[in-house]
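[Q] Does anyone have a clean structure-token version of this?
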Amino acid sequence: MRRPAGSPAEQADSGGRVIGKVCKRGSDVRRLLGYLFREGLAGEHGLSAPHSDAHLIAAWDGVHGLEPPRLAGGDRELGLLASALNAPLLAAGLGRGEWKQARPVYHLAISTADTDRTLTDAEWAEVVDEYVHRIGLAPRGDEEAVRGVAVRHADNHVHVVATLARQDGRRIWPRNDFYRASEASLAVEARYGLTRTSPADRTGDQRTSRAEQRRHARQTEQRAATGRPVPAGPDREVLRGKVRAALAGANSFTEFTERLRRDGVLVRLRMSVLDPDEVTGYAVALRASGVEGVEPVWFGGGKLAPDLTLPQVKARWCREGTDARQTDTTAPNRTSGLELDPSERQALWDAAGQAISRADEQLRAAAGGDPASRALAEAAAVAASEILAAVGRLTERSGAGPLHRAAEAYGRAARGLRRRPPIPTGPARGTRRAAGGLRRMEFVRNADTRQLLQTLDQLSRLSHTLASLREQQGRAAQASAARQAAELLSAEQTQRTHGAHASVVRGRTATPEMTRTTSSGPGQGPAPEPTISWSGRPAEPTPASRPGRAR
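[A] Here you go.
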């Protein structure tokens, strides 16, 4: 895309940040231009932000003769510019009646932070040239590329409008343009000395859509009006936490799905067309809320997080040879937290602490760059995420809270790039077994206060170590997620420590949140809660309160 003649762009003299946002494609280029050239304050004339001095800064063949003239009322005459942009579409054989379905109008918004210095038109034109080149709309030296213009109506951002047809009559479909835009942002920042932003590494979780947020707000309002408990968050976020908690220490896909169902999650399996006995995918949903007109919304594992797809989940067992042990998960065993005596609970906490310490050592060893050490570290980081998910499950029964948010942030920091599952290792298997042991406890007792605080401290330090490793590897987004997890864990540990001290001052032992994590079986009534003695210490369960034992 050619720039207007002018002085060369000056080097940036202050830190900044450039963001290129690929907007939803449209079908009416004149309407889009009308919005971009409309001037006024935010809220006036349908504007979402203030527009002033709207003008072209770049175009496919230079801006000379393309600037829309002003009319008597202050509006712009956009007909000629819109016709010139639409001409390649007509030459490509795309009739106007097909535009609504084809959506051939491409829209890209490029912005800098409010604290950055104001770029000149010449600088912005060079920025636009970098984006359209990398995205593939107008590669440098290609005289037959698409037609497009760049409009500036504010100090800190510009808009690029193009029609998706080359001037030689061929259609064009940009591929991976979101990631190419991110690469262009990094290139522009490096050229002008701006603050580096994180590259798109495809490790982030799927975002909650506006429709899901509106659904959550509507359910919250309706439930609050009827005095019913409000949902902890949008379905996608709650399900993500529940799936991670069910995955912690599970030994097979069967055990994983059984845990979800016991937790009130609907599970739907997708079977292979060629082999009806083979599971090729799964989806989860929360049970109907009872609100009129609200039906369950299903999410596949990949729609929750990149590491929760069926291949990623099954890789935790298939590579470990656990299929042969799958029968062990359905055999009667002591799974109730009430059946664990204090020494057994202490042993489970100790195993988790040792696993976290071992993972921390492996992450530190990976800083040397040895390939074997890096493989061990990647496996250790992923396995440790299951311990954090298990701790969140023990302490936050609602499926939402700081520990669940920390588990999500840590999960992003730990997962491999481009959905590559880590190679299972012996230490990682031990860490997963430790996570399964925490799951067995089902709740946190008063006597577990010290062990819980120690575990939170260890997980916080592990997150800091992971952040340092990701920074060294140049994976800025994951480093930021690890630091976020560390901050959440540290804040939660501090809050619980203060609560414990306050309880001691009041003359009784600290009592962290104690919540059952599984419901009793059908027809058994409510599950018995642990007995608390007058001293604040958990009393030993009586024979009658021990499920599964003879009275």
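[Q] Thanks! Anything notable?
[A] The chain has two domains: 18-192, 210-505.
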